[in-house]
Amino acid sequence: MNTPRETPVISVVVPFFRSEEHITACVESLLSSRDELNENVELLFVDNAAPDRSVQLLRRYEEVTLLREDRPGAYAARNAALRVARAPLVAFTDADCAVDPGWLRAIRTGFTDPVVGVLLGHVRYPPDASRVLRLLCAYENTKTEYVLGLPTAYHFAYCNNMAVRASIFEEIGLFEEWQRAGDTELVHRLAARRPDLCLAFRPEMEVTHLEFRLARERARRLSLYTSTNSKIASFRELSLRQRLGVLWRMASASESDPSGFRG
Q1: Range of the domain at 25
Q2: Which of 35, 73, 112, 130 has the fewest CB atoms within 10 Å around its CB?
Q3: How far, in Å, CA of 114 to CA of 127, rounded?
């Protein structure tokens, strides 16, 4: 099912650096999702000069294609994989994430609409994450869906749960090799060059971000993106009124779902 002679339907790109703690869970989840899809998928893991045992752990899996990129940064590593990826669809996640079994199927189905150029999915945190982090998670997912109803200036992206048509990279180029926000820059470049293609949110495309347990840890990471986003001339942050609109949507969704918010 994953032989070099077959053209894969999806190439999955995963950069890694210090990922020893979670990388096995990441691979196992991708293999389960591939088996559920039951189509040929290539798994491209890119060693960004990892100083730990991540490479040794990955060598246990013959299904994984192991690449190396010595230039520092996740976007440089992703670009290295994009140069050899063979599928018409490219999916991205991180080595500290575990995808749901239906993740690849959700991606495959999401691109049946020809106007969809980029897909973003639903991100969760582990079951033992703090309640405040789960609330933050609900806010993040609601915000993603909310901004897609706004002008493209407010759009953003995240490579821990994202898929892109390979033809887009061929047409507009690879990621900017910034420390952060290369994914958001890509969707803004795409909006400028190909306004006929859209960015879509697909809730069924789910990953669990294994790294975080506390809201302050995640909030600290999110705050780092604000300064990088300012490098994108076309990007606009949400106003206070718009952020309140996200909270209102989140509260409404929670009231309509007796099981509570998804986190």
Answers
A1: 10-256
A2: 112
A3: 36
Residue 114 in domain: yes
The answer to the question of residue 2 being in a domain is: no
> For every residue of 97-123, which 3-state class applies, written as one string?
EEECCCHHHHHHHHCCCCCEEEEEEEE
Give the residue carrying structure tokens 């002008």: 151
Confidence tier at 3 by pLDDT (50, 70, 90):
very low
Q: Which residues contact 129 (CB under 8 A, 6 or more apart)?
A: 137, 212, 213, 214, 263
- pLDDT at residue 261 tops 60: no
Residue 243 located in a structural domain: yes
Does the pTM surpass 0.85? The reply is yes
pLDDT tens figures, 175-209: 999 988 999 999 999 999 999 999 999 999 999 99
Strand order in the sheet with 89-93: 64-68, 41-47, 10-16, 89-93, 161-165, 116-124, 198-209, 97-99
Is residue 1 domain-resident?
no
- pLDDT band at 223; cut points 50, 70, 90: low
What pLDDT, on a 0 to 100 scale, did the predictor assign at position 132?
87
Cβ count near 235 (within 10 Å): 19
Q: What angle do CA 44, 46, 50 make, to 5 degrees?
A: 150
Per-residue pLDDT averaged across 76-98, rounded?
Answer: 98
Task: Name beta bridge partners: 121.
Answer: 202
How many domains, the chain? 1
